[in-house]
């Protein structure tokens, strides 16, 4: 048995396949290259959730229902503002999310999908002394997130970049947060319980908490010429380089390419960001070189979080909220997996191997 369950197949799924050797991701029969940049988040949800709710509305109706769900969950923010402000943003979102009724129907699912998208911008604004902005049910999910964050409509290319991100991270095999969602769903506890468990697992820096620290690393390095020495010193201290390595991928994470491309398009529009992007590329090249030298037996390549950090920074999200933006996309996958588990799975109850002391036998 491997500590960490590497290579253990714990379930069958029709949702997604991560091919770690080839660096390929398939979501419901479509490749990530085909989806990211070409599909709206609403259509992605329709693809993920198909067959898991009855009746299942057509994609345009699902989009309209999601808009209404954003409007409805916004009421949770108004009722509990002040108690939230002392908490880290992600914990404040968990508190609000816990208030959503723990059921298994489509309207609960849409409320949970709307929740991080509505709660995170509201809490970010409250923390900086600004009023939260009410959702616009007519807007697209991605456009509305940016409008609720900034208080004005986003530019087309910004909405497109966020949409590419949300679609690129919407599902990814049996990662830690998705597994957590499925374990809770296997007990039939309800979708809110599943999503809370998943969000809690996502929070850790080894899973969804890495992109904030990626920016800290960029800031600490400061300029391309300092990258090699800084990274060597970090590895001398046995630190992990954030944004590199993956449990499944042995080649470059395909999502990193989709996000680098989306980030590059944005940086061409806002030329002030060009030097930030150039710094990131220099650090990436230096990190790949030194990781190959220091860890020759373990291929450590760029993962999704590295360019996520640049993209979300360019879109104006504060770094402490990056994990929540990850959740805004991944929540669609969590819901689909929780439903698949509840409908077709069994209680997940593996065994542990006891290696502690045993009572001494009476003589
Ligand atoms: N920097 C330096 N060394 C690393 C890194 C890294 N980022 N990742 C793994 N290693 C080394 C590790 O020290 C170990 O070396 P040794 O064999 O000499 O002791 C070897 O690689 C194997 O490590 P492991 O702990 O068995 O690997 P894992 O499969 O448990 O780790 C990981 C996967 C993602 C947790 C890890 O690569 C990591 O900590 N990366 C940095 C954090 C990060 O970027 N997280 C985002 C992951 S992608 C988002 C997602 O899909 O969830």
Q: Secondary-structure map with pairings?
A:
Blueprint lengths: L15 E4 L4 E4 L2 E2 H4 L5 H9 L9 H21 L1 H4 L4 H10 L7 H22 L13 H10 L5 H13 L7 H10 L5 H12 L8 H11 L5 H10 L17 H16 L4 H21 L9 H11 L7 H23 L19
Antiparallel strand pairs: 1-2, 2-3
Helix pairs in contact: 2-3, 2-16, 3-6, 5-6, 6-7, 6-16, 7-8, 8-13, 8-16, 9-10, 9-16, 10-16, 11-15, 12-14, 13-15
Bound molecules: carboxymethyl coenzyme *A.
Low-confidence stretches: none
What is the strand tally? Answer: 3
Q: Work out the radius of gyration.
A: 21 Å
- What characterizes the major β-sheet? 3 strands, antiparallel
- Ligands present: carboxymethyl coenzyme *A
The percent range for helix content is: 55-70%
Overall description:
With 363 residues, the protein is an all-alpha fold. Helix content is 57%, strand content 3%. It has 16 helices and three strands. It has a three-stranded antiparallel sheet with strand order 1-2-3. A hairpin with a 2-residue loop joins strand 2 and strand 3. Helix 2 packs parallel to helix 16, helix 5 runs antiparallel to helix 6 (106-127) and helix 11 packs across helix 15. The longest helix is centred in the last third of the chain and has 23 residues, at 322-344. The radius of gyration is 21 Å and the shape is globular. It starts with 15 loop residues before the first strand and ends in a 19-residue tail after the last helix. Residues 4, 172, 175, 206-208, 210, 240-247, 295, 298, 300, 303-305 line the site of carboxymethyl coenzyme *A.
